Amino acid sequence: MTNDAVLTVEAMRAAEAAAMAAGTSEWELMQRAGQGAADYVWRIAAGRAVTVLCGPGNNGGDGYVIAESLSARGLEVTVVAPVEPGTDTAARARASYQGSIQHAVERLANPIMVDCLFGYGLSRPLEGNFAEVLVQAAASHPYRIAVDVPSGVASDSGALLGEVPQFHLTQALGAWKQAHFLMPALGVMGARRLVPIGLDLPDEVSRVAPRPALAPPPADAHKYKRGLLAIVAGAMPGAAMLAAQAALRSGAGYVKLLSDHSHPDAPAELVIEGGNLADRLSDERIGALLIGPGLGRDEEARRRLCAVLDTREPCVLDADALHLLDPDLLEGCDATRLLVTPHEGELAKLCDAFGIPGDGKLDRARALHEGTGLAVLAKGPDTILCGDGRLRFFPQASSWLSAAGTGDVLAGIAAARLATHGDPMLAAGEAVYLHREAAAIAAPAFTAGQLAEAVQPALERFL
Fold first, then answer.
1. Which of 151, 204, 205, 152 is nearest to 176 (CA)?
2. Is the bond preceding residue 165 a cis peptide, omega within 30 degrees?
3. Residue range 386-443, pLDDT digits in tens
4. CA 362 from centre of chain
């Protein structure tokens, strides 16, 4: 049993089927889900009245179990069920509920609403009475809880299938679903909590990326043993400087900025080297490279990117490098040593360049990895990581990260971590968590420079 699995609809159905084949009845699974969800609702309600919206399927059955559990504890509970249950197990839950039931929300305005209309398998918009009940209840109940996923959310893609109200809490039943980590669904879910129901989940499913466990340098460490990172600047040196400032605080022993520009405000500890790029890249002590922030997109930028890829060193490709990368540049490279860090626009550009189809961020990131071998960190409010045949999701970070330059900071962190150990997937996961923690440390409305300064105390929290 694990609490970090992230399942598709198909995988969730298979997990429930496996549990029933092993001897756990569907009724027992419903009891576990409903009772576990009711515990959260009970604490939030704090004695206040609750409305539970029940649909015709087993998610509605969970709602009847929740309602009966809360009623048995003394809460005032009203169930709103537009139609009767459509499955035997949901009908059994309906029969076990002893409280009041009505078919509409009219004149009902309890403090707490619990949405159990539809669960993780919904594939079409809510219509008729269901849509009306959800909209009316959301408008008249100040605190809203969704059970499993909000009704109107596509569980695999995170798409909104119609009008979906804003919830304050979403309780995932049995396992996380992909929608719990994907926009736009993530934006309406509020806080998210997992309600385990005892499913035995396979090892090969997607997961939440683990929180990194970093360590201080060993006793015999020196600057090259800790990792030498070379950052290749281009036409606009400011972005590369931001990346360098973050990299200096992310654990690498030595950071160089390969730049032909003047940098009068550069920190004293940052080594800046100009001149022939190929000569600078020939340093055998280099552990990893970063190229892309401020690179530009002209022929000179392409030449610099080609020189970096020719080194065959582990490398992070970000920003402008993602607009230049194509099959010709990647030919002959060991793509497994490369990490690309696109936002959604850059991801779409990469997929176009490599002729890779995809519908939505998740599909594109997965297809790009499968088609090229690149480790793909698709960044944004719903960051995902694809590499080594694995798919990883991340806890949501601060929305204050939606500021210019924060992506350069993320690239610098990832490159510094890559220089320390050479593993693109590990570096990407460490970088996302450090980036997230730095945002939590920095004051609201921080600049990218302030975020870079917060990376050092963020790293300390993972030691």
1. 205
2. no
3. 999 899 999 999 999 999 999 999 999 999 999 999 999 999 999 999 999 999 999 8
4. 10
Which long-range contacts (C-beta less than 8 Å, at least 24 apart) are formed by 359-365? Answer: 360/157, 360/159, 361/182, 361/183, 362/157, 362/158, 362/178, 362/182
- Domain chopping of the chain, boundaries: 5-206, 223-460
Q: Tell me how far apart the alpha carbons of residues 386 and 368 are, in angstroms, rounded to a whole number.
A: 9
d(CA 429, CA 435): 10
Distance CA 39, CA 379 (A): 34
pLDDT tens per residue across span 325-361 = 999 999 999 999 999 999 999 999 999 999 999 889 9
Containing 434, the helix (H) or strand (E) segment is: helix 424-441
What is the distance between the alpha carbons of residues 137 and 22, in angstroms, rounded to a whole number?
39
Q: What is the rounded end-to-end Cα distance, in angstroms, of the chain?
A: 27
Task: Write down the architecture of domain 223-460 according to CATH.
Answer: 3-Layer(aba) Sandwich (3.40)
CA nearest neighbour of 151 among 80, 77, 46: 80
Q: Please give the full DSSP string across 7-26, using - where no structure is assigned.
A: E-HHHHHHHHHHHHHTT--H
Tell me: domain 5-206, CATH 3.40.605.10, correct?
Answer: no
Query: Which of 331, 336, 306, 337 is CA-nearest to residue 321?
Result: 306
* DSSP string of 99-158, one letter each residue: SEEESS-TT---SEEEEES--TT--S---HHHHHHHHHHHHH-SEEEEESS-TTB-TTT-
Cα angle 168, 170, 176; round to 5 = 150
In terms of C-beta distances under 8 Å and separation of at least 24 residues, what long-range contacts does 302-307 make, across chains too?
302/329, 304/232, 304/234, 304/277, 305/329, 307/277, 307/278, 307/281
Put simply, whether the predicted model's pTM sits higher than 0.85 gets the answer yes
